[in-house]
Amino acid sequence: MIEYLRSAFNSKLFLVTTVLLLIYIYLKKFVYSYWSKHQVPHEDPTVIIGTVDKQLLMQKITIGTLCKNSYEKFKNHPFHGMYMFFSPTLMVNDPDLIKDILIKDFSHFVDRGLCVNEDIDPLCANMFQTSGEKWKTIRTKCSVFFTSSRLKNVLPILSDIADEAIAVSKDNLLESDIFEMKEFLER
Hints:
Transmembrane segments: 12-27
Distance between the termini: 77 Å
Helix content: 55-70%
Keywords: Endoplasmic reticulum, Heme, Iron, Membrane, Metal-binding, Microsome, Monooxygenase, Oxidoreductase, Transmembrane, Transmembrane helix
Membrane topology: Peripheral membrane protein
Number of strands: 2
């Protein structure tokens, strides 16, 4: 009986090891070779988490810090690739290329990889988090508000508000080391 259990355990262990090895080979050969095939500079990904930093998973850094660190490594390239778990993600570094993507070629870049469930969180159904046709519709409607003439008219108002915010911040920091954001934003 013990020999049978030992044999069954060894068979299952062999099967699990083989399956894990096949998954590893598949990920390395097909999933994590996307940027290499397209000759885009990128970091070598770790299986399962891609190029996501382990510190991000432990919530020691933010996604913004992850992107900044990635930018610093590849700032001499106009763009570079990352892997967000299993998904290849393109990071654009060149301001002119960013401008082309956001202005001239925006219709080709409608999906940003963010998942939005409007039923759970209706506030996430905004231009920055939606994708596809819904994003195109929202962007078309909102783009009339962001013409250069309208932005030029708003700039002095924003400048005055920013100056006032800086003055209030300085006053608050002179009074105390603790800065209450809620009170600050209510003003």
